[in-house]
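Trying the structure run again after the queue cleared.
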Amino acid sequence: MQIATKSVVVVAQQAGLPETVIDRHLDELTFFALRLRKAERKICQNKLRGWALSNNPAKGPVTAVLEECD
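Done. Tokens:
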């Protein structure tokens, strides 16, 4: 998984961090953004897995279409 340094800088600027803090702690900010992204991805995967394994009748048409594609 990759995170662009430029996007980390833009988010830090939008958060109101001074340029000196951003320049000094860019590696830590990038590492923090990567950890957040990994955690978010794990949560989304777990929600998707839970949805796929549930017996909710509302998901019937979606699973039927997916089974036809296999």
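The radius of gyration is 19 Å. Worth checking whether this holds up in the mutant runs.
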